[in-house]
Amino acid sequence: MRGVATGIPGADLRLVRQEMGPPVGAAVSIEVSGDDYDELARLSEEMLEKIRTVDGLTDLKDDYNVGKPEIEVIVDREAAGLFWTSTGQIAGTVRAAVSGTEASKYRVGDDEYKIRVRLQEDQRLSATDLQNLRVSFMNRRGTQLSIPLTSVASVRQTTGVSEIRRKDMKRVITITGDVQGRVASEVLNEVKARLTNQELPAGYELRFTGKDEEQQKASSFLMQAFVVTLMLVFLTLVIEFNSMMVPLVIMISVPLSFFGVFLGLIVTQTAFSIIMTGVAVIALAGIVVKNAIVLLDFVKQKRTAGMTLDEALIEAGRTRLRPVVLTAVTTVLGVLPLATGFDFDWRELEFVVGAESAGFWGPLGIGIISGLTVSSFLTLVIVPTVYSLLDEWQRRIQERINRWRKPLPEDLA
């Protein structure tokens, strides 16, 4: 499609894949801002040449508008004063010759038509036609004069900018491009590397916006949400267990889920999505801890009943294995359609695998499934081990403290 659609005069085409979710701008978006629009155009063209050969970067362009051809009539005020004429009289003559002036009105019944007088079409097509124009006026002495336009003005061809874009009170030109055949983050990193040494005059600024800016905002928000999630989970566990050691052991299952998330993305060859994968990580922080809670709460009950630590851990692993596995399996099966795009087409009455929404929701589903699966099995091994080690260290520390607090013999006292 891009090959067929290239080179159509007057057409502005942008061919991209259909994307799910809210619009986040172009994959590569660069804003260069400053005061002089001509200087911005030069910098924009220079940067375009630097990144034009980046592999996978397509539809690269900027929004600088060179404008349409114009003919400027610049009045020589000193010469006009010598002829006892004014800028207004000269401008009125040029306007009447090109655009026309209303001379009268023609009425037919109740209809009224304006009569506009101007030069014939073949006499107002080029700058040469304007140079041959004569300006007729009556000077201040009451004498009717007719002089060539070139006697009091110069005519030149130029181009004028049709629009100037501003952002934050600064003139700005935006360079945009899409990505095809490569991961967008890789292309963006290569673009940043090529523009690292870009020289900018004083007062000019270059910044990356579009998808990169939105991802940075989303990443910052998700990081804050993740920290708040961990704090809330940890405080809830401290209140529930009335201890610091048990919540710390339970929170070990959270980094175990990270390992599962990245392993699942690698196995399925799924790109890391800042938003969807980040949401999956935050959700797992509240999901995976339930297995450790079920396990250690049972250990606490058995130790209260008189069992030793090793006996309580073995009994907890044997008894709570089925609840841990069942809760993990049911959650995985519930998220599986989201990750695979498994759906039922009610119009065709058939099952569909790989629905369009899977491209957007896939990283979320895969992250939850892989993170929960790996964390559930590692929790059954690592959490009891860490709990046993911490309990042993705590016991030894307590013994040393008690030894230090032991009163001295009477003969030494």
List the keywords.
413 residues, alpha+beta, Alpha-Beta Plaits, Multidrug efflux transporter AcrB TolC docking domain, DN and DC subdomains, Multidrug efflux transporter AcrB transmembrane fold, 3 domains, five-stranded antiparallel sheet, two-stranded antiparallel sheet, 13 strands, 19% strand, elongated
Please give a structural write-up:
The protein has 413 residues and is α+β, with helices and mostly antiparallel strands. The protein has three domains: 15-66 and 166-209, Alpha-Beta Plaits; 68-160, 2-Layer Sandwich (Multidrug efflux transporter AcrB TolC docking domain, DN and DC subdomains), CATH 3.30.2090.10; 215-405, Multidrug efflux transporter AcrB transmembrane fold, CATH 1.20.1640. Helices cover 52% and strands 19% of the residues. It contains 14 helices and 13 strands. The strands form five sheets. Strands 1, 2, 9, 10 and 11 form a five-stranded antiparallel beta sheet that branches. Strands 3-8 form a two-stranded antiparallel ribbon. The longest helix has 48 residues, at 358-405. It starts with a helix and ends in an 8-residue tail after the last helix.
